UniProtKB/TrEMBL annotation, chain B:
Domain Imelysin-like: 41-269
Signal peptide range: 1-21
PANTHER family assigned: IRON UPTAKE SYSTEM COMPONENT EFEO (PTHR39192:SF1)
Protein family membership: Belongs to the EfeM/EfeO family.
Pfam family, one: Peptidase_M75
Organism from which the protein derives: Domibacillus antri
GO cellular component, one term: cell envelope
Protein known as: Efem/EfeO family lipoprotein
């Protein structure tokens, strides 16, 4: 009886099975068993399944889903065995959720809270990915500093940083991305619940992009300034590009990557009263096409030395694109989402902006030089301010039967 | 609950299938006997009635002080008297008509009907007077006495205990930890501690049964209770607790998180009602 109830239950079918009623289930255990393990057929647009297990964690090179729910956590235990235990439970749970399945045992006792919190019942997998990382504090609290990667340390302070503790740091992070916001939230909520007593929320951020339904041409998403964001990303379908820019290739972090998260508030009221020419000069790109100034198409190469007839640089040297591009050799994989969090009660302005997320194999060699250039000279700084910052080592991928962080504890 | 229903159905199905001929009915693999928790429920009943009895005595002292206009004495007696009610809340709240009369906060019920502890609390701490509050004081005495009489009739069930334990902590999470319970006197930590003590009483009574089911869970709950008391003890003052408005944001968050960390494993207490 118990075994049969513990079988994995697809969220879409749990309701159907329930509807048949207890008597129906008892007609024949074998028949009922196959009913419960029947998986919902996945449609490729927004209802698909992104495999959890693999050499790399999903949610890094995965095509960005419509919604993000991000949680930064504080570790409240110093006991490594407790940490390993919840990482094992997280592994199992995340794998089930990404398949669109309910977690834990089917709810059968009226005197116990159900294992699965239920708000994703009946919903499909929605391309859910759950990506886990550990921050510098994780190694210190668990006395694992000998394993702490040199790359993983707090960022230096950059010009104009206005970081707030309530949006910064964290010992662990969970990045849940899905094509449904409720599926993404459900994932983080249930994972935090599983580790309750061992972790606490440090900060969280719900964020969004355009939806795939609305963006039928699959264009580069636009940020809240109306400009395309992510054009210069390395090609996620290219193994060599990912090996060059994203995946760590030695030590226990092999197959992992480093993540930088910055909560960038955007002064959208100020931006909205800025003339188009000034907006384009600030980004160094045309708003409509996303092409570098003076070029026709979005993916035309960025030539920072190109001049107009008067000898002036077409892409201003202090534009965001020129500074981010540099000599074009150092690239980071950006996977940012926009946020809109009500208003800044002091000013009455929108509190909106970008949850900037980037993945890179080396923070010191890739992110820091780029961000230093931007922080010192970027014209865009007039319209933005960095309120939060965190760095995490995104753990290597998990093979079936393994668990998150296995190579670290090995 | 549902498991029991399923098994009964299974037995019925079995008897239908075997009705013609075979007398033997195959026993289902797992036993259906729920553990006998009557000793525990009786002990809890005694505890709860004991607390309510003390609540009546202490409330009388408090109300008399109000009636004779001794503001300082009334203020002193307010929080400790309430603690008895807060400890026994799963039982005390079983009487839906009396709880709002005794414990409603301003805005919980129509202003014209508002009386009880918090009405007098506002008089003492905000208006600084007992004048005009004599009737509320007498009504409070009558209501608590009625509660004491009614409590005798309560049938304490295991369900009441397992849901009651977490409910007590939920009370803490949703009102006491935010300072919304005793918003004029700021004595929320007295209620906070009493709710935790009431939940702990239930846990201790069921601990033995729980250990038989899941030793690690029982151990975890014990540790988490200790964590909560460690934090509460930081805010002890004399026989009571410091006022809520003396707590820092960090203190409040720490207390709140410790309740969440305790209540999550405690919410699994219901497994004691399942067959072994």
């Amino acid at each position: 009886m118990n075994d049969f109830l513990n079988k994995e239950v697809s969220r879409r079918n749990v309701l159907k099975a329930g509807g048949i009623g207890a008597a129906g289930l008892l007609i024949g255990a074998s028949g009922a068993g196959s009913l419960l393990t029947f998986t919902a057929s996945a449609d490729k647009s927004s209802t698909g399944i992104v495999p959890f297990y693999g050499s790399y964690q999903a949610g890094i090179t995965t095509d960005p889903q419509n919604h993000l729910y991000f949680a930064s956590l504080i570790l409240t235990t110093m006991d490594t065995s407790e940490v390993k235990q919840f990482l094992k439970e997280w592994t199992k749970t995340a794998a089930m959720m990404t398949e669109g399945k309910s977690i834990g045992k089917a709810a059968e006792s009226l005197l116990l809270p159900p294992d699965d919190t239920g708000e994703a019942s009946g919903l499909d997998a929605s391309n859910l990915t759950v990506t886990f990382g550990v921050g510098p504090g994780f190694f210190q609290k668990l006395n694992l500093t000998s394993k702490q990667p040199k790359e993983l340390k707090e960022l230096p302070s950059f010009s104009f940083d206005a970081l707030e503790e309530k949006w910064s740091g964290g010992d662990l992070c969970i990045q849940a991305c899905a094509d449904d916001p409720q599926v993404a939230f459900h994932a983080v909520r249930n994972l935090v619940r599983i580790a309750r007593g061992k972790v606490q929320l440090k900060w969280t951020q719900a964020a969004f992009q355009r939806t795939k339904q609305a963006d039928t041409k699959s264009e580069t998403p636009r940020n809240l300034f109306g400009f395309k964001d992510g054009t210069g990303n390395p090609d996620t379908s290219s193994h060599s590009a990912m090996n060059n820019h994203v995946w760590v290739q030695n030590g226990w972090m092999t197959g992992g990557t480093y993540m930088v998260v910055r909560r960038v508030q955007m002064f959208i009221e100020v931006w909205d009263r800025t003339a188009l020419g000034e907006q384009e000069a600030t980004f160094g790109r045309h708003r409509d096409t996303g092409a570098p100034i003076g070029s026709e198409n979005e993916f035309d190469p960025v030539d920072v030395n190109k001049k107009d007839v008067n000898g002036n640089k077409l892409i201003p040297a202090n534009s965001h694109t020129a500074l981010a591009h540099g000599d074009g050799k150092k690239k980071i994989l950006r996977r940012s989402y926009s946020y809109a969090d009500g208003l800044d009660t002091k000013t009455g302005s929108f509190d909106a902006g970008l949850l900037f997320i980037s993945f890179q194999k080396s923070i010191s060699d890739q992110f820091i030089p780029i961000q230093t250039r931007l922080a010192n000279n970027d014209k865009l700084n007039e319209y933005t301010i960095h309120r939060g910052s965190a760095v995490f080592a995104c753990l290597p991928g998990v093979k079936k039967g393994g668990y998150l962080g296995e190579t670290l504890f090995y | 609950m549902k498991k029991r229903t399923l098994t009964v159905l299974m037995l019925m199905a079995g008897s239908v299938l075997t009705a013609c001929g075979n007398e033997e009915i195959t026993e289902p693999a797992e036993t259906t006997t729920a553990p006998d928790l009557s000793k525990v429920t009786n002990e809890y009943r005694d505890y709860a009635i004991g607390e309510i009895s003390l609540f009546v005595t202490e409330t009388e002292k408090f109300a008399e002080a109000v009636k004779v206009g001794d503001i300082e004495l009334a203020k002193e007696l307010y929080a400790p008297a309430r603690a008895h009610y807060e400890r026994a809340e799963p039982i005390a709240e079983a009487f839906g008509d009396l709880d709002p009369k005794i414990d409603a906060r301003e805005g919980d019920i129509p202003a014209a009907e508002w009386g009880g502890y918090h009405r007098i609390e506002k008089g003492l701490w905000i208006d600084g007077t007992t004048e005009g509050y004599e009737e509320y004081a007498q009504q409070l005495i009558d209501d608590t006495k009625l509660l004491r009489a009614k409590v005798e009739t309560v049938d304490v069930t295991p369900d009441m205990l397992v849901t009651g334990a977490v409910d007590l902590l939920n009370e803490v999470s949703t009102s006491k930890v935010k300072g919304e319970e005793d918003r004029y006197s700021h004595t929320d930590l007295y209620d906070f501690a009493a709710n935790v003590e009431g939940a702990e009483k239930i846990f201790r009574l069921l601990q033995g049964d729980l250990e038989k089911k899941d030793e690690a869970l029982a151990a975890e709950i014990s540790v988490r209770f200790a964590d909560v008391y460690t934090l509460l003890n930081k805010h002890k003052k004399g026989d009571g607790y410091t006022l809520y408005n003396n707590l820092s944001e960090t203190d409040v968050k720490e207390l709140s998180q410790s309740i969440d960390a305790l209540a999550e494993p405690l919410s699994q207490l219901g497994i004691v009602t399942e067959a072994l």
